[in-house]
Amino acid sequence: MKDPRIQKLAANLVGYSVDVQPGENVLVEMIGTERDLINAIIEEVGKKGGNVFVQLTDKTVQRAMLKNATEEMMKTWAEIDLNRMKQMDCYIGIRAGENVNDLSDVPEEKMKMYNSLYSHPVHSEQRVKHTKWVVLRYPNASMAQLANTSTEAFEDFYFDVCNLDYAKMDKAQDSLANLMNRTDKVRITGPGTDLSFSIKDIGAEKCSGQKNIPDGEVYSAPVRDSVNGTISYNAPTLYNGITFENIKFTFKDGKIVEATSNDTQRLNDILNSDDGARHIGEFAIGFNPHILHPMKDILFDEKIAGSLHFTPGQAYEETDNGNRSSIHWDLVLIQRPDYGGGEIYFDDVLIRKDGIFVIPELECLNPDRLK
Predict the structure, then answer these.
(1) Torsions phi, psi of 6, nearest 5?
(2) Residue 233: enclosing H or E segment and its boundaries?
(3) CATH of the domain at 49
(4) Are 207 and 215 in contact, with CB atoms under 8 Å apart?
(5) β-pair partners for 218
(6) What is the C-alpha to C-alpha distance for residues 371 and 366, in angstroms, rounded to an integer?
(7) Distance from first CA to last CA of the chain, Å, rounded?
(8) Digit-coded pLDDT (tens) for 162-179
(9) Are residues 135 and 33 part of one domain?
């Protein structure tokens, strides 16, 4: 018997997130073993008159490929997949791997080569900029373990989050996007954090289920050389299968001049990937009312209620501050009282304190209003 929640999610992905139109080509990429959602998506694309193409990826096979990859092989792989991506109008990416650490023992130089020669041209430059796309995780026992819940409880949480009324959330985000469009100076304070920068004339973009599921953020980017001060992130994060904790950055005129964590050497190796990796490409405020705690899955963690993320690396085209990099690493700071609290100021006006919006025009984004 089909789970109606899966069919509803598939319908939302196809009809709302990427809004498939008759004749459009849709690439569905599944990393993992899940099949029910793929089959439901194929049905929904068919109903819309689209053409669906499926890529099935196994992380253990991908690991073997990466460990044995040559530069020539990586360039050919990218050329093949880039040509396919150029023929797509829509992309739905589903991540359902059993082990988030599958790539943790791939040599760092191989992962850097993959990020720069494959991921950057195929995804950052083509898929992100030239398709209607949405990326999501799919619930399994591995994700439940990361969230410290039973598998059944996590599935219930997952579908509550992913089948939220994102059209309602979209309208509520207008006030924050409009305010960010009018803002020059931003200041972020909290334990180990006192950071200031400008977002003047960069713009702001709403995220309400068209790019990510789950969703719930509005993002911009700092003027590239305007960032000064220190930020101490309090959510653990995975990068290329490695867990980083207690990341702390100090900025001078836009550049990360000091970076520490539980693995300071590896952290700095990543930041040395290219010049843009030590500058920030995104500043975003998260407010999904159902997501409260980090689970080392950025598609969930960056939407945590009362959070923000401040991202080293590539800027998005929609809010382009000119920063270019082969990385885009969303790092999360939670400002609710149970995580130490904190404040956000726009042009010297307090707009959020301890994770709760405190000015009337933004109260529509507080948890009690979005559920």
Answers:
(1) -70, -45
(2) none
(3) 3.40.1830.10
(4) yes
(5) 206, 285
(6) 9
(7) 29
(8) 888 888 899 999 999 999
(9) yes
